[in-house]
Protein 1
Amino acid sequence: MRRFQTIRAYLFLLPFLAFFVIVTAYPVIYGGYLSFFGQHGARMWYVGLNNYKTVFTDPLFWQGFVIVLFLLFIQIPGMILIAIFIGLLYEKVRVSALYRFLYYLPYAVPGVVAGILWSYMFSKSMSPLVALWKLFGVANPEFITLKSVPWIMLVMILWEWTGFTSLVIYSALVSIPREYAEAAEMDGATWLKVAYYIKVPLLRNTVFVLFIFNIFGAMQVFNEPRMINVLFTLPMNYTPAMYVYNQAFAYGAFTYAIAMCLVLAAVTFVVSFFFMRRSMKELDVHA
């Protein structure tokens, strides 16, 4: 009987497993195989670990992590703090589903479309902000410079992801038993104190998951700088993902790009694992 149940469970999982192997596992394994080869056009030859040695000694690849660090230490904490504040307002004001939908709507816009939209907003010739700048006496404003690009990316990512994150926070808030807040209010606690001392600490697990998923996004950021690059020429290695893309499609170094992808995946795993271990220790301490 147990064997029959096991077979039935595997048959139930078979469509997903087949899809996972074909779409995810096989390309990764085959890409790992190709990373041991050099390439020039259609000609390939075995080079062993040379591609990986080149990646680890390639300063252009590692320079792209400056923007990744900016996102890790500025964008992610800032976005989660804003999302927590909005989520608390959702719960206090009891806004309608329409308002929550409007906040969520930017997340539903494809990343490339969002990049085009914001590229238009910061365009020197087409931006509606040009008229606003003229009111302050600036005739030809330069919205996009090499120093301003990280902050423009910050605006784009916050606009795209904060609404979704605030809904996740709100979903966690409504699952908190109301008795906790009611007991604190009976003791004289204000709404701010209830939020700070009771509700926000109970969001610890949700925030932990959001941090992990946002680390993945920061490591792979591509759409936003790619769209900005249409208006303002960025370095080919502005982010690791851009450098991989340029190596593959601008220079035709596909096997070297594969090696960089795998190294980037390994770095993402290490950073996520380190954060996960630290967070788990914090959760154990506060448990």
Protein 2
Amino acid sequence: MAEIKVAIVGAGPAGLAAAKELLGKGVKVDIYDRENFGGGVMSFGIPSFRIKMEAIAKQTQPVIDLGGNFIFGKDLKESDFLELATKYDYVYLAFGLTKVRHLGIPGDNLDGVLNALEFLRQYNFDEKLGLTTNRPKLNGTAVVVGAGNVAMDGARVAVRCGAEKTIIAYRRSREEAPCTAAEMKQAEDDGVVLKFLTNPVEVYGKDGKVCGVKCEVMELGEPDESGRRRPVGTGKFEDIACDYVISAIGQIPDMDVWNVGKIATDHGYIKAVANEGESFQTSVENIYTGGDIVKGAKTIGVAVKCGKDFAKMIITKHQL
């Protein structure tokens, strides 16, 4: 039987899980990643107080031991994926959501408005990965917009970076918050103040820098398409004096990746044309995908299952 060759784009949870399963069956695997280390968001997006590098090494080291070939420093785009598809039997797109939505309100371009993912990345590159000595330094008050896990991480990191007060502003109630209950409690234990039914509508500035945020007081209406009760504005407003506003209102794909238009996408998410479990075939026959780029932001556990199901599909197909 001819050697099966697989290219995996993304050395995060989905990619590592797929690589480990395939390497164990004798498949040749090359793993491409734009960073110079493995682990993906586990390494640069999640602080060490949530996941240690030792735990990440337990995911990456078996792949190395089994002969996985990491090719780092490769920021690939769709044209590159298509080229890989001519050289490998299968290509697995396992990269995640690397952008955060802009606030889209007046003043969101002021000095002091931060992107939560970039903020976490800068912190982790210093504190967790030891690659820089450029840890963010905050002072005064930080307002984090959103209530997902990234928002909770961003708020807890803001505390560790020197913010004297950190406030999470979320337009829905505590019950509708997308983060886990444990993450919310840990943020509160760190001194983070949670303000629910609070929707920022404008960032105030002075001399080009953030000095406050105007928020509309919300109430809950009927459930929307997400199943959560829709936040409805009351027409009442309050101002919060602050020095930083950190946007954590949702992770989205990097639209610049799709520079050809051959792989079918929907707002940057890959459209699956077929699936076996959590292994999804794209509109290009030998290019598959899984994880956040097809399912939206999910947990590490979901990403791992996606990777394993992709490997299972190949193992079953080729009777390995």
Protein 3
Amino acid sequence: MEYRQLGRSGFKVPELCFGCGTFGGQNDEFFKAWGAADVEEARKIVDICMEAGLNFFDTADIYSFGASESVLGAAIQHLRREDVLLSTKATFRFGPGANDVGSSRYHLTQALEGSLKRLGTDYVDVYHMHETDSLTPVDETLNTLDKFVREGKARYIACSNFSGWRLMKSLSVSERHGWSRYIGHQVYYSLLNREYEWELMPLALDQGLGALIWSPLGWGRLTGKIRRETGIPIDSRLTSKLVVDIGPQVPEEHLYKVVAAIDEIASETGKTVPQIALNWLLRRPTVSTVIIGARNADQLKQNLGAVGWSLTPEQIARLDAASQVPLIYPYWHQRQFEERNPSPV
């Protein structure tokens, strides 16, 4: 397992990270569609990850309303805390109260204390703002996060799902006050949806941010089970309208075009569709780690097979061509002038 620096920090993370959204989802329709591993199953998954050199585990308070954090915390109790890297997030609603949501000092203080208790630890290695909060001043959020770092409750801070202008504003505020700055941006990026390359990747290259990729298999579409001839299998989470509506939208024809290109390369390499999709991401600029999920040990072992080898430049070019979509303004205009605005990839 290769280790990479997370952005412009000195912090190193494995190229694959395990996403714990599949932990503890028994009583939640949305997360049950992802998986519902209990403590025993989660401990097996954690041990397989650790043996492979994957010691980075990502969760969030909102995942199964705290159950994911609780299961993960119990699943790592047999390990030395310093051997494990933990990432969690806050911002989404976590309770019925007026202040049980957002990135205010009030909510974040409450949220981090709750996460630490459920995880059974006194610090997290990376603390993410899970989404933007347009109502809380950026200064208030970042001052609160800087306090967490100074208190030792969070080693590093990062964000997720930010727009380019809001992320740049946050970095500017941190720089102006000498506060801890975001070192990573957890983003959606896959062969099916490459919008990250338009604005956020150039920003990350310029500002030294590491990308942590969530849903690298296109919201369950690149598992190798979906084909034009067969459609979506009955055991796929994509049979849930709730799951489909809340995730990235992918036109069917685009999906099948990309899958066909992956299938060709799978026949050449002997690798699976998920392994090729993950390996493609690991070759992209700014990517520090790719967050993989698994409902069980077999799925996990297959995804771990995405590392230790590389697609050829020619194969990458074919995947790029198959997954390309028309740019929106102003990007289509800028890219016409490659000598001044080259593609980040």
